[in-house]
Write a structure and sequence with these properties.
Distance between the termini: 43 Å
Organism: Paenibacillus violae
Number of strands: 12
CATH topology of the largest domain: Beta-Lactamase
Number of helices: 11
Radius of gyration: 50 Å
Number of domains: 3
InterPro entries: ArlS_N (IPR041610), HAMP_dom (IPR003660), HATPase_C_sf (IPR036890), HATPase_dom (IPR003594), His_kinase_dom (IPR005467), HisK_dim/P_dom (IPR003661), HisK_dim/P_sf (IPR036097), HssS/ArlS-like (IPR050398)
Catalytic activity: ATP + protein L-histidine = ADP + protein N-phospho-L-histidine
EC number: 2.7.13.3
Structural class: alpha+beta
Oligomer: single chain
Strand order of the largest sheet: 2-1-5-4-3
Largest sheet: 5 strands, antiparallel
GO molecular function, one term: kinase activity
């Protein structure tokens, strides 16, 4: 059974239960009120008789005509002496005579059953001065009241049935309206499954309920999936292009060796060098891809305490033999103990310094500072800079600002993506700002306190 049908039936049952309960309560209260009002009317009649008829006339034998003046429909009036003997009696129905007479000293009124028929009885003592000399008894069948209650039951039954039908229709209509976004979502997901095309749900901007939030969340999810698919397609395209270029070069040089390499040793050596360089480049890209995949799917960090200043000095010493350009380290303190994954932080600094070395003109400054709650590594070069419109894309895989120089500089476009991932695993941030022809600034922040040993 669908949730929509379950919700409709549950709401219908709930509303019907409330409606039937209210109907019974209303009927009971109304019936009690009418019965009490009928008893009060009979009591009023008895009081009128006691007021306008003298006690002696009420207890005078064969004086029934006095009682008939006050006789209601379907009723019987009796006057009794102290021994509960009937002195006078007036009735327009013989069925009530079976009720035994009863003398009382205090006024009473009640209803009882007689042959499955409700009867009302009112008894009032007859006073002569301060002395009680008899009892006035009025007994009636509330036929009009019963007929009124039967009509009320019929009306309530019809109204209740109509209300139940309306509530059933309203329940299904309401559940249909409430679950319409879910139905649309299911239909959209089926269309996505069939066509593999990203689609979104229409949003009612006037409504800000939970279903609107669900639809909005679904659309955001579709946007993320679409963005992820675009990135995946771009990644596959870029990776294919990278390997295709290297494989084309290798194929070209091997063909050249097969044709002319054995006759010309210089050409033979040139081809071997080219094939060797492209093989190393493909190996480097493959390792970087594997490293990036490991960082994204199985990110485990090994934290230890080490000196950040010493680590930067080691990285600069590694790069100095590779270039005649100058690296200048400017720490705010002689020693900065940090708790992080040493190898990963070393790799981040090497990636940034390697990029700076490829594009700087004369020198690169490395500034180290400690500002609660972070350590800050700021690397500034004096290279040609990055165009402003290119800055949002520099952390994307295989993205290179100057594609014409990528093979000359040996870049694969994966370094900054790896650096960004490592920094995020440390709960830090990495930012790049640049001014064309003046240089580029990279700022890395790492939290002072260790967050976790395994992420």
């Amino acid at each position: 059974m669908k949730i929509k049908t379950k919700a409709s039936l549950l709401s219908f049952i709930w509303l019907t239960s409330i409606l039937i309960s209210l109907t019974f309560i209303i009927y009971y209260i109304y019936a009690q009120y009418e019965k009490e009002e009928e008893l009060e009317t009979l009591q009023f009649t008895a009081n009128q008789m006691l007021t306008h008829i003298s006690p002696l006339e009420l207890l005078q034998e064969d004086n029934n005509r006095i009682l008939r003046k006050y006789l209601p429909n379907h009723a019987m009036i009796r006057s009794l002496d102290l021994s509960s003997k009937v002195i006078n009696q007036a009735a327009n129905t013989s069925e009530l005579a079976v009720i035994p007479p009863k003398h009382i000293d205090t006024q009473e009124s009640y209803s009882q059953k007689l042959n499955d028929q409700s009867v009302m009885i009112v008894r009032s003592p007859i006073h002569q001065g301060t002395e009680i000399i008899g009892t006035l008894e009025i007994i009636t069948e509330p036929i009009e009241l019963d007929q009124s209650l039967y009509r009320l039951v019929g009306i309530i039954g019809i109204v209740t049935l109509a209300a139940m039908l309306l509530s059933l229709s309203a329940s299904f209509l309401l559940s249909k309206l409430l679950f319409l976004p879910l139905s649309r979502m299911i239909l959209t997901m089926k269309e996505i499954e069939t066509s593999l095309a990203i689609k979104k749900l229409p949003l009612n901007r006037k409504s800000k309920d939970e279903l609107y939030q669900l639809s909005e969340t679904f659309n955001h999810l579709m946007e993320r999936i679409e963005m992820s698919m675009k990135k995946q397609r771009q990644f596959i395209s870029d990776a294919s292009h990278e390997f295709k270029t290297s494989l084309t070069i290798i194929e070209g040089y091997t063909s050249l060796i097969r044709r002319w390499g054995f006759e010309n040793m210089d050409l033979h050596m040139e081809a071997l060098d080219a094939v060797h360089d492209e093989s190393k480049r493909m190996k480097h890209i493959t390792y970087q891809l594997l490293e990036l995949a490991e960082l994204e799917h199985e990110p485990t960090l090994t934290f230890s305490s080490f000196d950040l200043v010493t680590l930067c000095k080691e990285n600069i010493q590694l790069l100095r033999p590779l270039s005649n350009k100058e690296f200048i380290l400017l720490p705010s303190e002689s020693s900065m103990m940090i708790e992080a994954d040493r190898l990963q932080i070393k790799q981040v600094i090497l990636i940034i310094l390697d990029n700076a070395m490829k594009y700087m003109t004369h020198h690169t400054h490395v500034y180290l500072s400690k500002t609660d709650p972070n350590y800050c590594i700021r690397i500034v070069d004096d290279g040609k800079g990055i165009p402003t419109e290119e800055l949002p894309f520099v952390f994307e895989r295989f993205y290179r600002v100057d594609r014409s120089r990528s093979r000359q500089t040996g870049g694969s476009g994966l370094g900054l993506a790896i650096a960004e991932r490592i920094v995020k695993l440390h709960k830090g941030t990495i930012q790049i700002s640049s001014v064309p022809h003046y240089g580029t600034e990279v700022i890395v922040t790492i939290p002072i306190c260790k967050t976790t040993n395994s992420i």
